[in-house]
From TrEMBL:
This is Mitoferrin-1. It comes from the Eukaryota. The keyword Transmembrane applies. Solcar repeats lie at residues 38-126, 136-239, 246-340. InterPro entries: MCP, MCP_dom_sf, MCP_transmembrane. One of its GO terms (cellular component) is mitochondrial inner membrane. The gene is slc25a37. GO terms for molecular function: ferrous iron transmembrane transporter activity. Pfam families: Mito_carr (PF00153). Mitochondrial iron transporter that specifically mediates iron uptake in developing erythroid cells, thereby playing an essential role in heme biosynthesis. It comes from Salvelinus namaycush (Lake trout).
Length: 356
């Protein structure tokens, strides 16, 4: 095994790693696509760490985004910028208020991102072999992102999720309930004392359907979001890191660009999802809607009635500010751990060095 490294770029030379038959393994000389004999554990471990750090670091901004997407917010919860919102929330509601709902988000972040990245890497490699004879294919990247999204949303049903679409969708609906609870607890003057109180109250007063009221909107948003996200990331990597070495700067810049573009494009769907999740009583009552709002089509009509075209882009600043560092963190941490774990695996397989 040969390992070359400098402070900025590190490359794993895999041509020296032999398979069981003594021949070079597939994926020779290509860090981004791990050798065929490498376990998916590497992708899953790196993805889990990336997901946990991403959601932990950026959660306060996500809380601000939820509030800024409110169509008729309380006068005390109207903010002109992300910084002003965070400052006022901390000053008037306490230091930990922007972290409310983080606990339930963390329950799903690790396993969801483990499945997400592992699925993406596997499907991307498989489709690229078919479409581009092993080369980088934007179509393969986009399709892999879509498949990874469905499995990511189905993380609560891990036993069956990888094997059929129906369990994936069912599991995704369960995971979507986590997002509903999170956003209810993020809202201004949220009436829920804690996680269990929120779950119990929603189930008792609105029924189980409340936990997946915006699930169709969530899928409709996540699929194009992730397709654009992965295609943008891979396109940026082609430009900034054509040899696909471990290059921290390129991973950060590519991740930030991918997050910004995909977040801006899908903001209208995110606004509709937030309305369906939070069921803003003041906003719905102002246009004489009683009961609970359901369905993506109804959400689109309601958002337009409440604020016109501009309403579909409420919170776009907070959404982009959240997604840029969020995806930069996710990709840079993922690529770092993938590099380190691959290096360790190669060293174990190479065995101890012989006598000099």
């Amino acid at each position: 095994m040969e390992l070359r490294a400098d402070p900025v770029v590190a490359t794993l030379d895999m041509s020296e790693i032999k398979g069981k038959d003594g021949e070079p393994s597939e994926g020779d000389g290509d860090y981004e696509s791990l050798p065929a004999h490498a376990s998916l554990t590497i992708h899953m471990t790196a993805g889990a760490v990336a997901g946990i750090l991403e959601h932990t670091v950026m959660y306060p901004v996500d809380s601000v985004k939820t509030r800024m997407q409110s169509l008729q917010p309380d006068p005390k919860a109207q903010y002109s910028s992300v910084y002003e919102a965070l400052r006022r929330i901390v000053r008037t509601e306490g230091l930990l208020r922007p972290l409310r709902g983080l606990n339930i988000t963390m329950l799903g972040a690790g396993p969801a991102h483990a499945l997400y990245f592992a699925c993406y890497e596997h499907v991307k490699r498989t489709l690229s072999e078919v479409i581009q004879n092993g080369g980088n294919s934007h179509i393969a990247n986009g399709l892999a992102g879509c498949v990874a999204t469905v499995l990511h949303d189905a993380v609560m049903n891990p036993a069956e999720a990888p094997f059929s679409l129906f369990p994936c969708l069912c599991g995704g609906a369960v995971l979507h309930g986590v997002l509903v609870v999170k956003q209810r607890m993020q809202m201004y003057n949220s009436p829920y004392r804690n996680l269990l109180d929120c779950v119990g109250t929603i189930q008792r007063t609105e029924g189980l359907t409340a936990f997946y009221r915006s699930y169709s909107t969530q899928l409709a948003m996540n699929i194009p979001f992730q397709a654009v996200h992965f295609m943008t990331y891979e396109l940026m990597q082609e430009r900034l890191n054509p040899h696909r070495q471990y290059h921290p700067g390129s991973h950060v810049l590519s991740g930030a660009a991918a997050g910004a573009v995909s977040a801006a494009i899908t903001t209208p769907l995110d606004v509709c999802k937030t309305l369906l999740n939070t069921q803003e009583n003041v906003a719905l009552s102002s246009i004489h809607i009683s009961g609970h709002l359901t369905g993506m089509a109804n959400a689109f009509r309601t958002v337009y009635r409440l604020g016109g075209t501009a309403a579909f882009f409420k919170g776009i600043q907070a959404r982009v500010i959240y997604q840029m560092p969020s995806t930069a963190i996710a990709w840079s941490v993922y690529e770092f751990f993938k590099y380190v774990l691959t290096k360790q695996q190669m060293e174990r397989e190479a065995g101890p060095a012989g006598p000099v």
